[in-house]
Amino acid sequence: xxxxxxxxxxxxxxxxxxxxxxxxxxxxxxxxxxxxxxxxxxxxxxxxxxxxxxxxxxxxxxxxxxxxxxxxxxxxxxxxxxxxxxxxxxxxxxxxxxxxxxxxxxxxxxxxxxxxxxxxxxxxxxxxxxxxxxxxxxxxxxxxxxxxxxxxxxxxxxxxxxxxxxxxxxxxxxxxxxxxxxxxxxxxxxxxxxxxxxxxxxxxxxxxxxxxxxxxxxxxxxxxxxxxxxxxxxxxxxxxxxxxxxxxxxxxxxxxxxxxxxxxxxxxxxxxxxxxxxxxxxxxxxxxxxxxxxxxxxxxxxxxxxxxxxxxxxxxxxxxxxxxxxxxxxxxxxxxxxxxxxxxxxxxxxxxxxxxxxxxxxxxxxxxxxxxxxxxxxxxxxxxxxxx
Length: 388
Known about the structure:
The protein is 45% helix and 16% strand. The chain is α/β, with parallel strands linked by helices. The strands form three sheets. The chain has a six-stranded parallel sheet with strand order 1-8-5-4-2-3, sandwiched between helices. A two-stranded antiparallel ribbon has the order 6-7. The N and C termini lie far apart (72 Å). The model is unreliable at 382-388 (pLDDT under 50).
C-alpha cells in the first residue's frame, strides 16, 4: 500500500508594541502593570526580573523601586525574583546565566502565562530572551532596553541568543517579545562611548532604507554629540520604526533565506568583536564594518566616491574611530574568515548586503578577496597602512 504525504499549512499572526515612557517603575506610571494585567493570565500574574549589573550600578534604587511597584499593584501582579547578571557580552559568552534564569523560572513556577522582564543592554536582552524562549517552549517576555543601541535596534527585533564556539549568536531562537518598553531615563547614565555606539545602527538602517533619515542625522550631528534628549529620542524612534517595518514587511522575519539585509557591515563587525575579545562595543564594530564595506563598494565602483565620503565623514564627525584594530598582515585572513562564518550562519548562497547609494541596499554574492584586502589595509589606520 502506498500512502500519500499528508500536507498541512498554517499561519500565525504576531503582534507586539514598542512603548515610550519615562520613570517606568514610578507608582504613578501604570504601563507595566497594565501590560501584565491585560495579558489574560490568572491574577495575580507572576513575573521575574533580570537586571543588567551595569544598569544596577548606575541605578542602585531600581530593585527597591520594582519591589515597591509590585506591592502597589499586588492585586494583579506578583514579583517572584530579581536576578542580577553581568552586562555586555560576558552575559552571552557562557550558558551560566541562562541556567540561573531557568532555575528561577523553575523554582518560582513561572509558566507560559507568566512573564520574564529583562532590563539591560542588547547582550543581556539577547541572553534573557533566549532563556525565556526555551523555558516551557516560551515564557512571555517584556524587554526594557537601557542603551541607545538596544532601544533603537537590538531589542526591537525577534532574535534571542548566546555565543558559542567563538561565534556570535551561534545558539539562539526567533521569538517576538510580548512588548518592548523604552524608558528614556536609562539613557542619562550611559557613558559617552555607549551613547555614540548606538547611533551606528541608526546610520546603518538609514543607509539601507531611508536617505532622508541619513540627511537628518547629518543635520543633527551636534545635537546628537552633545546628548540632546529630543534628538536622541527622535533618532531612536525613526530607527526602531524602520527596523520593525522591515521585520513585518520584509518577507523573511525568521531569516529562512540566505540574506540578512539589516546586517550591513556586520560580517566584519562580528569578527572584530570576537578578535578583540569584545573590547570594542558592538556599535563601534558596526561603524568600522560599515566603513570597510563602503570603501570596498567604492573600490568596485558600486558606490560613488561622494556617497562614500559622506558616510565616512558622518561617522568621523560623531567621534567614531574607524581604524580597524588589525595590527599585522597575519590578522587579515582571520578577519576574512568572518565572510564565510556569516554565510554559514544562514547557509545557502553567500549574500553580503552593500549599498549602491545612500538609502539603497544591494546584495552581492561573492567578495573580491584582493579588493577587500586593499580596503582592509586602507582602514587599518595611518600607522599600519600599507596601501594608500
